[in-house]
Write a structure and sequence with these properties.
mainly alpha
Amino acid sequence: MDRSRLIARGGMLTALTIVLLYLASVMPAGQVGLCAAAGVVPAAPLSRRRVALGVCVYVASAVLGFLILPKKTAAFAYTAVFGAYTLLKYAIEKLRAKPLQWVCKLGCAGVALGVVLLAAPMLLAPSMRVLPDSLDTGAAFGVAVLLYFVVFVLYDIAFSRLLQLLRRIFPPE
């Protein structure tokens, strides 16, 4: 593929990501889903073995998100969790051993949870509470963390199936 087509595709994918993140920042009810959808966009070039293009789409989208989105929470969620996981997932799935892949993926999910719980309030709004009052007890927090990991595993499985579909529809050149 010639360079100008590659650059144009990267620009279109970045624009699509920014549109999804913008919608996430103005529609709070769909924020998580739209950020997750935006995180899938850099996977399109990765599914065609265009790693550099996938990284460029992620970086450009992250930078533009912090510059132009009205609410920075969507840009933070994309940069720290959903977009970053797309790139990490691609690298992790290069490992041959499936159990090792899952250990790495769950480790990434744990780090993402820690970033959200610890860094988000400091970076976005010092007075912001990440956890509702109902999760202040240890048991409720433990159940919430367990549910987070279950949802993460389901997200990863759905993401893998979507990548398989992308590879079938758009085979590597």
